[in-house]
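Lab meeting, item 3. Inverse folding demo.
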């Protein structure tokens, strides 16, 4: 979660060290351990260090290799032993205890731009190659680490913190109309390389950027591969392989003495917590895991607290509860203490800020269970239809019997859920808003954009196409950025074991039955580890929507009478926004409150200058 920044004057103009230092100082909230700068004529790199791994305890950045390559990086690498072996085969000796930034430099020295083909993990970095006079920047495969840049004439500036780039005097506050429109349509920017500001770009996940005196080029270096279907002779083989891959993914993301886990009462995050506890418990009493769970006590019916408590008791880990009943509508907005870098639609949530601060009091690293749901998603109708098309009637019958006789299955048939999905009201789905500025709508063809992107699917031939599409969804990068310090302002590095490349490849290759439907793999892997009350629990979404509950309260009536910021009219026809107070349809409420979220951000942006 360290802060990085770099400037390159392509015309050879010298870097002003004092200004670069001011940018590194701005990043101090991200990296409170040390701040350093390096300048060589027309190029300069800055770094604010947050030490989150054993190897980083004596690390210094910007770092150099052979006096030829310099790096500033926010990086945590997976599979370090394999990378060290590959480097050795290329004639480069790196020490096992070398920090991740040094291994990236060795990889660049060994393979040049192809170094990204040998790196796994979470990273964003900038490397100055002195001999070739080029700046090489890259972002990890899933976009877990953010990376922003601006090309301002002959000046090129980059950082993993958007507001850091905005400090540069040549960067204007001009907004990107298409990006703001995307927020109003989708809650996120759908243009991969865009930000909310016209002068600042976002390096998309799995992309590498090369900047030299002549040009700035960007290209994709990786795409989620289609895993070949795998089948195991014995069920125990599949479970053991999963446990091994998960433990390795969690171990790669620990490398620290204590860790927090954002833990629900379901299966994904408790499975991660169990793995972390198993790994750290073997290291001695000075290593610890602590769980953090968000709960509601009065606002809506909620069961996560008791179930998460059962998991914590079984794993013998302490647990802290974050009670969110009094969050209220937009109560988190305090622009003196927090400045959201881009619009964020969180009407009844603080975006996890309170919980992140809770974690930061004891830990610098937190784990999530994100990724389990999409990686194991499947459609049984598709599975059985494929078998029938192949005339595999025996396999069809065997799979149906296996599915219906799994332990606790009859409580997990989800008949009601399936019925609601098949016969849902047309109003219970996202719809195109009626309040967009007509001129903007026409100029950017927003209706055509909405229809194209809401109907877009990823064509693939994977074992379970719905799972592949879910993992490849660009929404994940936006979610990861929301947990980054560029948004939270909290020096906690959030890591996601289920997004380990090797583990993802394994999960996407599994057949729908017996392992993926109803997360049977996690239920089997948790046998004897998690309490059966949790292990066999039916998947349980919230029984009520907190937003709808809040909109029924009298104190929420103000949402229909907010005062519009003058800039809001560029995007929203205020008088066309329907009243939302008392609304009971979740999608209608969510969509029609987006203008209010944008209005809050526009006001805060104006206040921040």
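The presenter then showed the designed sequence:
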């Amino acid at each position: 979660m360290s802060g990085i920044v770099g400037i390159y004057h392509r015309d050879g103009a010298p870097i002003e060290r004092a200004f670069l230092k001011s940018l590194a100082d701005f990043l101090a909230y991200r990296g409170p351990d040390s701040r350093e700068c390096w300048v060589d004529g027309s190029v300069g790199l800055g770094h604010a260090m947050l030490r989150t791994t054993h190897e980083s305890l004596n690390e210094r950045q910007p770092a150099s290799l052979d006096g030829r390559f310099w790096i500033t990086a926010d990086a945590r690498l997976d599979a370090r032993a394999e990378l060290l072996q590959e480097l050795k085969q290329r004639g480069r000796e790196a020490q096992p205890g070398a920090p991740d930034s040094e291994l990236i430099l060795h990889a660049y020295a060994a393979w040049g731009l192809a170094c990204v083909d040998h790196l796994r993990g979470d990273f964003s970095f900038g490397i100055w190659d002195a001999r070739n006079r080029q700046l090489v920047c890259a972002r990890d495969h899933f976009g877990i680490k953010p990376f922003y840049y601006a090309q301002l004439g002959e000046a090129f500036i980059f950082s993993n913190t958007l507001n850091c780039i905005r400090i540069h005097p040549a960067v204007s506050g001009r907004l990107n109309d298409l990006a703001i429109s995307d927020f109003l349509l989708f809650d996120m920017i759908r243009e991969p390389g865009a930000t909310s500001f016209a002068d600042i770009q976002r390096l998309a996940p799995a992309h590498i950027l090369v900047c030299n005196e002549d040009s700035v080029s960007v290209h994709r270096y990786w795409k989620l591969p289609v895993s070949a279907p795998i089948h195991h002779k014995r069920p125990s083989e599949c479970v053991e392989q999963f446990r091994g891959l998960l433990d390795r993914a969690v171990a790669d993301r620990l490398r620290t003495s204590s860790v927090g886990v954002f833990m629900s009462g379901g299966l994904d995050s408790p499975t991660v917590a169990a793995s972390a506890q198993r790994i750290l418990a073997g290291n001695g009493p000075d290593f610890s895991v602590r769980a953090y769970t968000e709960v509601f006590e009065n606002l809506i019916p909620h069961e996560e607290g008791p179930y998460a408590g059962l998991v914590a008791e079984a794993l013998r880990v302490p647990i802290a509860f974050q009670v969110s009943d009094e969050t209220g509508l937009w109560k988190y907005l305090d622009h003196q203490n927090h400045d959201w870098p881009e619009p964020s639609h969180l009407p009844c949530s603080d975006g996890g800020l309170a919980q992140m601060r809770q974690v930061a009091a004891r830990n610098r690293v937190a784990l999530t269970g994100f990724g389990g749901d999409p990686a194991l998603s499947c459609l049984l109708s598709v599975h059985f239809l494929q078998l029938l098309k192949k005339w595999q009637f025996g396999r069809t019958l065997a799979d149906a019997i296996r599915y219906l006789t799994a332990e606790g299955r009859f409580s997990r048939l989800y008949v009601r859920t399936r019925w609601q999905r098949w016969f849902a009201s047309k109003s219970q789905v996202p719809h195109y808003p009626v309040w967009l500025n007509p001129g903007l709508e026409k100029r950017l063809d927003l209706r055509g954009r909405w229809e194209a992107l809401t109907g877009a699917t990823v064509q693939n031939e994977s074992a379970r196409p719905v799972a592949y599409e879910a993992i490849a969804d660009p929404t994940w990068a936006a979610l990861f950025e929301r947990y980054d310090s560029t948004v939270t302002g909290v020096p906690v590095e959030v890591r996601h074991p289920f997004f380990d490349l090797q583990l993802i490849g394994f999960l996407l290759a599994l057949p729908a039955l017996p392992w993926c439907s109803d997360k049977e793999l996690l239920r089997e892997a948790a046998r004897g580890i998690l309490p059966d009350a949790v292990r066999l629990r039916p998947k349980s979404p919230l029984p009520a929507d907190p937003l709808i509950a809040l909109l029924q309260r009298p104190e929420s009536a103000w949402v229909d009478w907010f005062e519009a910021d003058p800039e809001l009219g560029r995007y929203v026809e205020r008088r066309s926004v329907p009243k939302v107070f008392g609304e009971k349809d979740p999608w209608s409420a969510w969509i029609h409150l987006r203008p209010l979220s944008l209005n809050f951000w526009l006001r805060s942006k104006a206040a921040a200058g």
